[in-house]
Task: structure prediction
Amino acid sequence: MSPSDHLILGISGASGARLGLRALALFAGSPDVERLHLVVSPRALLVAQTEIDAGISSASALVDSANLDAATRAKVVLHAESAVDAPISSGSFKTRGMAVLPCSSGTLAAIAHGTSRGLLQRAADVCLKERRRLVLGLRETPLSLVHAENIVRVTRAGGIVAPVVPAFYAAREVDELLDAYVLRVADLLDVRIDTADYRWTGGT
Ligand SMILES: Cc1cc2nc3c(=O)[nH]c(=O)nc-3n(C[C@H](O)[C@H](O)[C@H](O)COP(=O)(O)O)c2cc1C
Result:
């Protein structure tokens, strides 16, 4: 297994738990990804309980709710948010990079300021310091000056802030919109996803 076959997915406590689950399924299903390292913030569970199912009481229950097939599930390595001794906490453990989907304004702020409180933030900090690809799917609107300045800080540090803006031209159903967005993030991470393609090919 090449080191770059490891990809990290963080799910933080912004609205959009279903987006996190679609990203989990699509990234883990990618032929480019041998291991998908998943970190779920405690607040993300709260959001998943609100948006998906009140019974989702743990990160592993959230993974179960994605209904992955056995081969895809076997590629997912779930890390506790408190496990700051996990491999992805160190730059010496090579990865392809990381996406945070959805990314809350709180997690954006933490990453922008390098606070590294918990594994999700630390793994993102490592990606920045190692100059690896970091994509933050910020889900907040409208934006305050604080948010805008944090976007600038992360961008200056080499991260990519890709606000969750639906590609309305690409889909009619919500899951199709989510998948189209994940595909854009996969392009940024140079990860292939073998699914329907949502690329704009021009008007009729
Ligand atoms: C149902 C629900 C939806 C939320 N939606 C958002 C959101 O879209 N964007 C955001 O920045 N914060 C949102 N929040 C607030 C964050 O969950 C809160 O700031 C939290 O501390 C973020 O923690 P985390 O980034 O460590 O996951 C939401 C909270 C709840 C309970």
